[in-house]
Amino acid sequence: xxxxxxxxxxxxxxxxxxxxxxxxTVEKEAPIGEIRRxxxxxxxxxxxxxxxxxxxxGVIYRSSVILVTSRKSEAKALDIMExxxxxxxxxxxxxxxxxxxxxxxxxxxxxxxxxxRLVGLLGLETxxxxxxxxxxxxxxxxxxxMTRDVEYVLxxxxxxxxxxxxxxxxxxxxxxxxxxxxxxxxxxxxxLIKKGYTRLGLESEAPxxxxxxxxxxxxxxxxxxxxxxxxxxxxxxxxRGVGRVPVVKSRDSKILTGIIDREDLVRLYFKSxxxxxL
Length: 278
Known about the structure:
Layout: E1 25-26, H1 32-42, E2 46-50, E3 56-61, H2 62-66, H3 77-80, H4 94-103, E4 108-112, E5 118-123, H5 125-133, H6 142-145, E6 153-154, H7 159-169, E7 173-177, E8 183-188, H8 189-194, H9 199-202, E9 224-225, H10 230-240, E10 244-248, E11 256-261, H11 262-272
Parallel strand pairs: 1-2, 6-7, 9-10
Antiparallel strand pairs: 2-3, 4-5, 7-8, 10-11
């Protein structure tokens, strides 16, 4: 099996040497309706809150916006923003920055200078792209990186079940299967934002207000087989902008056996270096 000769050098560059993402920002007085619109229009998973001088004040996750109830429908950014778990500096190495993000289960982290002014945003797609271009994933298959303990829902389940999984497991998307475990679709946080489903629409679980998964899920789901080349899987995720893809036993059966997300792709690199305690 072909492996990269010196993987330890792949992510040693400093963050100031990396093309950081341009973050989506708002000020803390921005209303929740504007933030929802930004998330819907941009597809962003995170919004950074800055002041008039560009200093970082907090972060807003897409999941936090979905959690807003009717009692907070007039909320502003300052009401739902959180202290960022990971804040990076341009002098940090990419490897250590990404390791910190994985440790705290973060896909994105703001990068600030010594004056706390926002410089950019680091996302896990950056190291994945570098590893892909360097040939790190060559020789691996999807089964080498996939998580087998995967949560899923049925088409007839209430959307509240999806809600519970997203909140408890911090999942950005949940695969949908039938009784035979055949993949039928996926429900993502973006689906909920795009179609206007927030906690406001889920507060009443009594019929006929109950929302079923089948009415919200994306049916044209991107999935991969256990035997697929991991290079192809990583390329699909980057090119299509998806954060996680269901893994099936085979393309013929489409039986769900696991899932691969961006953390799995990056975690494989650290496992290859003997840093698997994440």
